[in-house]
Amino acid sequence: MRGRLTKEVQTLAVCTMGRDITTTELHLMPYLQYVLMNSQKIEPIKINPEELEILTGWAKKEYITMSNDFKITIQKYFWDMINNILYQSYVLQEGTPIKEVTN
Fold first, then answer.
1. 38-51: per-residue pLDDT in tens?
2. Taking the chain (103 residues) in consecutive chunks of 10 residues, what is each chunk's mean pLDDT?
3. Domain map (residue ranges) of the chain
4. Are 10 and 21 in contact (CB under 8 A)?
5. Residue 11's closest CA among 80, 85, 90?
6. Taking the model in full, what pTM does it have?
7. What are the start-end ranges of the H helices in 63-103?
8. Beta strands of 1-103 (E only): which ranges?
9. What is the β-pairing status of strands 72-74 and 64-66?
């Protein structure tokens, strides 16, 4: 099943981000990826308070920058992190071992 927070996904998150992630955080990543490849602006109506808190936390860690009008940019290393996590969670079958972890 795609988009699940499996053991492999958590392992990858710990290896790349240094901590476990939540299901909400995992499910926010494809939206962030989509926004960055298109408008580069978060639509506030499309996120809930928990997701805004996650985005704010990422901004505090300097993974992303987000202006008052929700224009967003991302650090290359964080882009690579979320794409590795998305690949493990959405593309590979559950139980597929992590072959390579990059920072």
1. 999 999 999 999 99
2. 82 93 96 97 96 97 96 97 92 69 45
3. 7-91
4. yes
5. 85
6. 0.87
7. 76-86
8. 64-66, 72-74
9. antiparallel
The residue with tokens 């927070």 is 5
Strand, coil or helix: what is 101?
Answer: coil
Taking CA atoms, 62 is separated from 25, 45, 74, 86, 98, in Å, by 16, 24, 8, 20, 26
- Amino acid identity at 60: K
Q: Amino acid identity of 68? A: N
The b-or-e profile of 41-74 (16+ CB within 10 A means b, else e) is ebeeeebeeebeebbeebeeeebbebeeebebeb
